[in-house]
């Protein structure tokens, strides 16, 4: 690593001016998808840009967001819903933008052994192994059992505006289970109105322990916390988010709008470093992933055991103990234009916020377009990427064609319920779900 | 190695001599109480720990025993050394680079930056110590003068006492969100002298550790021998002289009792505040390791726990020493 640092201090000055702020502190949560930040540091990409970056792990998503807003952090690895939620004033109000999408996929849904015992009786088998993807309808009998006993069926997710919350809700609703509404206009932010399955916030590392204690019967979380349940024999991952929506957008890199306006060169230089890092992670058919696993396993980054991190970072996923399957795209950092912040990604998140009541009132299609364009800044990304192309560090084929509008992420595959995602008609899309708010409904 | 043994020998002799004189003194009972019993206590604790740890099965593997913790302690030190080496390299590199730049253009602006790597365990200990001392000193500067005023003026004390009683039991977990928000809102500067996280932790520590010193000082001051007070009154000593010559000397033991309790609380509060707010320090180290969830995490947390305990103990001892030096009885 020292070698790469030494190589890094030589200045590679592009068309972009000197950074306004060279000493930066960036926050992250201990999850494998913070990899572009760690790699940009370790490979000296930040240094190449004349940036002296300190990476700091944060306790939870709330602390991370607050510290970006107060300026203690210059920017951070964020849940895609955080810049959107903050901009529209759900939870916290602050203008946060993103010009870099950090990865695709990377989450899973795990249920406890007890739940799995009942569930697996309702799942089709091929040989002795269940057929994937598994629908939440198999969970229905379990939920009905606990309702008959007068108990609530509880599951965990990591944050109210997290990808995980929307993915878990999506999967449950696709299987005919109601995950509950939010009603912020009445001060109800528990998200459990009319719920069949009650979802609650649990920090990622506490998920396995909370499930083991019986407080929740399952959860949706990023790696390594699904594989951890398998390793410990306390639960069974039933589905990955890749099977819910192939190549779905995951984390983003967020900064406040005012920070971006005050430090345009610094922002571009950060983006250049992270784009190169993401490219490094996927180049030569994931050839660098082993090295990335070693970097991530260091205590100052993710810190989990290398073998656990490697399980998902190198293209496999273990469902029931011993049921290891190939999921080559479990974690994607650069392929399929993963890093480009398509406004359509934002529209999907906003559509789910409306569907579950976090956005309390119906909004016109225009509002969705404007909010997405305000938060997802492809223009800034294009500037950074173009300068990398001009310098010959990356080639134009690596990126979408910047002369196009690039509104919509290229078709990634069907979502699990078969409902077509139509980002240009957000209201029509929201109305096409069986479960969820429609039109001008309020819960 | 050689120098080590040669320097060690005289010390060893001294130690042996003192041991011999102890034997000669034949105060066996006292020697046992002072040396053997604590050692026995520690041994029994280590044995108990060693035997029970492997039986506790957590989701991160078996609970670490003393051996694993010792090993991780060594590893943390090693990591610190490695990081320091890198930091030195980083500085030399910058110096060379700056020299090159200056050779080309003598007017160029150059700057040497600190190594931006993650802080090590040892760095975190340093950060925590600085923060706790800053918070404690601030608390002392507020609590001692206030305590003296309260002790001297009973009406004032009666008026403020309810407030003290209400604020005293407030946990750092309750103060922290308030302090964080207030610091963020009021401490705005382009080139801040302190980091916001430092201020937040420090003020939280101050708010929680202020009370024992305040209460003990006021009680100590109120309990000054009335004869002395009368003498002071007869001599018509000016207020400050009265405080300095009469009140302080007799209330110093009480003040120090308060200070020691305050420092203990300050240290506990700091670790909690760091864990909750993710300000740099030992608390953050513990939380980060908990989130790492690797097979080494629990051992590393145990290293931190023992370090926290040991530092707390040392801080108390240092206060005791200062108390002995300061407690004048003229």
UniProtKB/TrEMBL annotation, chain B:
It is found in: Cell membrane. Its main location: membrane. It is a multi-pass membrane protein. Residues 125-319 form the ABC transmembrane type-1 domain. Belongs to the binding-protein-dependent transport system permease family. PANTHER family: ALKANE SULFONATE ABC TRANSPORTER-RELATED, MEMBRANE SUBUNIT, NITRATE IMPORT PERMEASE PROTEIN NRTB. This is ABC transporter permease.
